[in-house]
Design a protein that fits this description.
This protein is mainly alpha-helical and 194 residues long. Among the domains are: 50 residues, no CATH class; 65 residues, no CATH class. The chain has six helices and no strands. The chain starts with 11 loop residues before the first helix and ends in a 9-residue tail after the last helix.
């Protein structure tokens, strides 16, 4: 980025030793602070090592997705504000960016193996844009489905000796119950002195 040269000469105060001292102290302070700030861990292009730029709120730097909008705007193109004086320029720039990204995407897709393309499709199907609430609902549904799956796939415990014994007792009781029922169904002798 080109920077405009200052139009005016520095003042006497700006050329003073004290000004420089204040400036260098501020820079040292910032350098000491920045070494303790969390760093972006995305793999950088040139050597695939962690990027190391200062991370933003979501743990990535401003280049590697730190500026990706969250909430309702997640995964949606952020068009420039129409009220800004250079709105048209920004809009054209954004449009060109979108087109460039689409071209890159189609090249990447064309180079994929069928297996990779399938995985790519599944990844995007699971990350559809939408309101934050709708996406949370989807997440909950997926979690529930996974829990149900885990529950149904869990092997049933083998019958213990205790439960086998209980089953025997139940079977014996059932036999006895059946025999009593048979007795009750027998025609009752007629008369009071049977
Ligand atoms: Zn980064």
């Amino acid at each position: 980025m080109k920077r405009k040269r200052p139009q005016h000469a520095p003042t006497a105060w700006q050329s003073s030793a004290q000004w420089r001292l204040i400036g260098s102290a501020a820079i040292s302070e910032w350098n000491a602070e920045r070494s303790n700030l969390p760093k972006c861990n995305a793999a950088r292009k040139r050597d695939r090592e962690p990027c190391q730029l200062i991370a933003m709120e979501n743990g990535k730097c401003f280049i590697h997705g730190g500026r990706t909008p969250r909430g309702d705007e997640w995964h949606r193109t952020q068009w420039p504000d129409g009220k800004s004086p250079d709105a048209e320029k920004r809009f054209r720039k954004k449009l060109a960016e979108q087109e460039r990204a689409a071209r890159k995407r189609s090249i990447r897709l064309a180079a994929m193996s069928p297996d990779e393309r399938e995985r790519h499709k599944a990844w995007h199907a699971a990350r559809k844009p939408g309101s934050a609430a709708a996406r949370q609902r989807k997440r909950d549904e997926r979690k529930q489905a996974a829990e149900v799956r885990a529950m149904t796939e869990r092997p049933r415990p083998a019958p213990s000796a205790e439960s086998a014994e209980l089953a025997d007792q139940i079977a014996a009781l059932r036999v006895e119950l059946d025999s009593r029922r048979d007795d009750e169904q027998k025609p009752k002798p007629i008369g009071a002195f049977a």
